[in-house]
Amino acid sequence: MAKVTYGGLSYECGGNSILDCLTAQGVPVPSSCRAGVCQSCIMRVVDGQVPQKASGGLKPTLIAQNYFLACACYPETDVEVVLPDAALGKMNTRVIRVEQLNADVLGIWLKPSRPLEYKAGQFINLFKDESTTRSYSLASVPALEETLFLNVRRVPDGLMSSWLFENLKPDDELTISDAAGDCFYVTGKPEQNILLIATGSGLAPLYGIIRDALLNGHQGMLSLYHGSYNPDGFYLVEELRQLMLAHQNFKYIPCVSDGEATDGYTPGMVLDVAMTKHADLTGWRVFLCGNPEMVKTAKRQTFFAGASMRDIFADPF
Description:
single chain; 317 residues; alpha/beta; Ubiquitin-like (UB roll); Rossmann fold; 3 domains; six-stranded antiparallel sheet; 7 helices; 21% helix; 31% strand; globular
């Protein structure tokens, strides 16, 4: 009879779902509909395997991280599970390089003390001290780089960003968390077109996602729209243009919302430009990162343009 282990204790399922098994033992698993619709009972398997139908309806990025619905999971073999908010581990890193990518974005390259398991586009938490921590997306690709690449936007009077801009130097040590988040590329649909929209340092996860997709031989279109008030707000421009030259299925469109758009830049709000170019997103995958209001509006507009909510991935910050 299959057993489920949670919090160091094991329980026999007796033909029940993991949700029913754990709640019967007094384990406080969040739940609501108990029909696999609301997804409030989502959990993650850390040892063993759960039946494929237990992940029905979840986004591919969640399935790739071994998440499943406890109410729909009737285990056939022993498994160990945790809630999605289980504490992330920590590790030390050494600063390899620090460079201002533009006036407001700092590039930081870190060498972790041990290999970090992550997917391009996920985020880590960076700790200044016990009371000050911030989340930053990873612009690096694990298969391409041994170092982690972060893009930190300067926030006026920001405790973390001000400290990093003013004090960080090579060979300093920083503490980071393990990686988390579901904004990353998943293989399996190499011909699917992908729309990516970012503002400011929201470019960071998309830079990693694009390179990861190309590395995995993605064949569909990868259309990146990056928005800034003026041309001075862009960064990684040459790197992205070199990628565009090397890959016919990748397009990079930097959009200037205020002031004059010089050669190589498109005038207009980034979301307006992108939606004008892509009025029908049926069958597309969508990644949205950056300003929370832009991301919120873009989720609605891309959904009404035909993209499935299952294929829309958002990372507002």
